[in-house]
Amino acid sequence: MKKKTAAPGNRLPLGSVQANGSGPAHTRHSHCFRSMGMKATPLILLACAAAISFTAAEEKTTEKTTGEKAKELLKKAEDKTVAAGHAVVNGTKKAGRAIADAVTPDSDAHKVDVTINDSDISLPKTLGAGKTAFMVKNTGKEKHNFRIQGKGVDEKFLLDIAANDTKVMHVQLKPGTYQVTCPEKEKHGDSMKHTLTVQ
After folding, report:
1. Distance in angstroms (rounded) separating the CA atoms of residues 130 and 135
2. What is the pTM of this model?
3. How far apart are CA 158 and CA 167, in angstroms?
4. Can you tell me the distance from the alpha carbon of 127 to that of 199, in angstroms, rounded to the nearest whole number?
5. How far apart are the first and last CA of the chain?
6. Which pLDDT belongs to residue 56?
7. DSSP classification of residue 159
8. Exposed/middle/buried for 112, CB within 10 Å: 0-12, 13-18, 19+?
9. Cα R_g (the chain), whole angstroms
10. Which of 133, 61, 142 is nearest to 102 (CA)?
């Protein structure tokens, strides 16, 4: 019996796929890959979107961290400014206190009354050691000053004491001997120079 052969017009080109899916294997695989590629496109888009979202979130976190660091730096600067302000205030208080000390003794100081006039200085000859507030009153008609020297101490008022005025000098006295004088009147003799003993 003779085998039937397909007519030349019915022959399929090499590599084509017949209607029943038959044909060369590589052609069928290529068709499958194209189908998978079309289906994989949405997955790729989703992956890209997820990557973009992750990057944006990371940038936001970094921005937040930078903001927090900036906030911390500002807080530290603010604290330093406040500390500096306190130092200025304390310095102002001390300066104001120096002026107040001219007429007001410290509460923790031992108060000693001193009277100075145009020819004499009157004060106790013996005192106890410790913080002492010399309350110097000028009862004369001229300006006078008050100076105490000894045991590493050499103090006097920056400005003279006006007539009928009173100033206060704070001195930390140690046991020993001190010289008390009126600098402007030292040449007038022993009446303006006294020896103070601290026990």
Report:
1. 15
2. 0.51
3. 11
4. 6
5. 152
6. 56
7. S
8. buried
9. 52
10. 133
Distance in angstroms (rounded) separating the CA atoms of residues 18 and 23? 6
Mean pLDDT (the chain, rounded):
74
CB 121 within 8 A of CB 178: no
> Tens digit of pLDDT for each residue in 106-135?
999 999 999 999 989 999 999 999 999 999
176: Cβ contacts below 8 Å, ≥ 6 apart: 150, 151, 197, 198
Residue 17 CB contacts under 8 Å (≥ 6 apart), including other chains = 23, 27, 28, 31
Q: What 8-state DSSP symbol labels residue 52?
A: H
HSE of 100, CA atoms in CB hemisphere, 13 A = 10
Euclidean distance between CA atoms 155 and 111, whole angstroms: 17
Beta-bridged to residue 113, according to DSSP, are 135
CA-based angle 159:161:163, to the nearest 5?
A: 145
Indicate the burial class of 5 (C-beta count within 10 angstroms; 0-12, 13-18, 19 or more).
Answer: exposed
Report in angstroms the alpha-carbon separations of 79 from 41, 85, 86, 94. 57, 10, 10, 22
Provide the residue count of the chain. Answer: 199
Hey, what amino acid is at 75?
Answer: K
